[in-house]
Amino acid sequence: MSGTPPGEAVEVAICIVGAGPVGAALACRLGAEGMPVAIVDRAALPPMEHPDFDGRAYAIASGNRRLLEAAGVWARLPLPSGPIEGIRVSDGRPGRPASPLFLHFDHAEMGEPFGWMTEARSLRVALNATLHAHETITVAAPAEAGVTRDEAGALVRTGDGRTIRARLVVAAEGRESPLRRQAGIPVTRLAYQQSGLVCAVAHERPHRNQALEHFLPGGPFAQLPMAGTEGAPNLSAIVWSERDVLAKRLMALPDAAFTREVQRRLGPHLGTIRPVGRRWLYPLAALHAQRYVDTRLVLIGDAAHGIHPIAGQGLNLGFRDVAALAGLLIETHRAGGDVGDPALLRRYQAARRPANLAMLAATDVLDRLFSNDNPAIRLARDLGIAGVHRMPRLRRAFMRAAMGR
Ligand SMILES: Cc1cc2nc3c(=O)[nH]c(=O)nc-3n(C[C@H](O)[C@H](O)[C@H](O)COP(=O)(O)OP(=O)(O)OC[C@H]3O[C@@H](n4cnc5c(N)ncnc54)[C@H](O)[C@@H]3O)c2cc1C
Question: How many domains does the chain have?
């Protein structure tokens, strides 16, 4: 909080705790409307920007691209994002060709790409630049947030003698949200005994903006088309779930052996591959907060819900929370109302909690159904995949859900 002398309180409408992609996007969206907002993160913002490609990327649904445009973030992305124009869903086993029964989603039926593959570092650079570009945003990072709340408002102490007074505090601190715990909000958790392996590969042949979701017995394997770089004109992100023990073994493999394992699962259609950037391993678990609101407090993003990455929807759900909450806050602020009003918070919860729960349940069912090598279940799901492929209305409903429409 540069410029504010110790002992003096900053007065804002909203204080967001957590400057991850979700909290930062909310600050930028509200800042774009000229609303007075503070954002606090326990980590410093600049080190969140990785100067080199680090192998991580997000699939940002087209609906959320519009949110980032309205927030002033999209135009500041320093690197091009790659469109996802087709998604092929198939069933298989590593080293064997995918099942001939498959499902193909084509963006031509919807009139726009399903989503945009955006490098994590590119999104971070754009968010940080936008946070500093909007004049009504106060950034406090690195800083610990000590929050007290009552019916009248909230007070946030940032640990350096400075204070922020706000009508509403937004908890955006990720899965282990201290504000959620402090408010006594219970959480339902699901463990998967699976880990997510994330990396990027350069390949010989172009991906033609097509993604692959390949269901394997150990967990789903996804190839997501990225915009090429000078050193890697044909580039894809790989997000791949495996049982914990095997995932750890795979992570420890030397590059050549690891690449062979990726190639066995990906198949030959993109030609030979080579790794770019580093590999990442994430333990997979789902969680859902039993309520999203408390006195002068609201939860968004992973603080409210964490889902299996099978459909690449985790961050997208967080951005949909941002769009819903920002809509209510902007409308209330313009009308001169109280942005921490319990009725407003209840409207946000009613808009987002059922939708997030439905996505959590859908990704959970998908994972259980597909991470299974039972021949009867395998046949049933292959027939299901082929059935959806032949039903245009159902296929379009799936596509609308993926795009956040
Ligand atoms: C393997 C894997 C692949 C994924 N792939 C995709 C994908 O392709 N597409 C997609 O949409 N999603 C994906 N996700 C999900 C996505 O990464 C998360 O949903 C997203 O990072 C959540 O953002 P967030 O801002 O809510 O929380 P976080 O990213 O966790 O950010 C929380 C922030 O809060 C700060 N913080 C924490 N505690 C405090 C505190 N006490 N005080 C102040 N600040 C604090 C942290 O420093 C951090 O900056 C994936 C997840 C996994 C595990």
Answer: 2
- The structure tokens 């705790």 sit at 17
Q: Go through 88-107 and write b for each residue having 16 or more CB atoms within 10 A of its CB, e for each that does not.
A: bbbbbbbeeebbebbbebeb
Per-residue model confidence as pLDDT tens digits over 296-318: 999 999 999 998 766 667 899 99
Cα 203-204-208 angle, rounded to 5 deg: 75
Identify whether residues 308 and 349 lie together within a single domain: yes
Task: Give strand pairing partners of 10.
Answer: 164
Query: For residues 120 and 54, is the Cβ–Cβ distance under 8 A?
Result: yes
Q: How far is the CA of 137 from the centre of ligand 1 (A)?
A: 21
The 3-state DSSP class for residue 213 equals strand
Q: Is 255 exposed, middle or buried (0-12, 13-18, 19+ CB in 10 A)?
A: exposed
Helix or strand or coil: residue 222?
A: strand
**37 inside domain:** yes
Instruction: Name the residue of 16, 29, 41 whose CB sits within 8 Å of the most ligand 1 atoms, as the mutation to test its pocket.
Output: 41
Domain that holds residue 305: 9-54+64-71+120-189+287-365
Q: What is the pLDDT of residues 79-133, one digit of tens each?
A: 999 999 998 887 776 666 555 556 777 777 767 898 999 999 899 999 999 999 9
The C-alpha atoms of residue 161 and residue 260 are separated, in whole angstroms, by 55
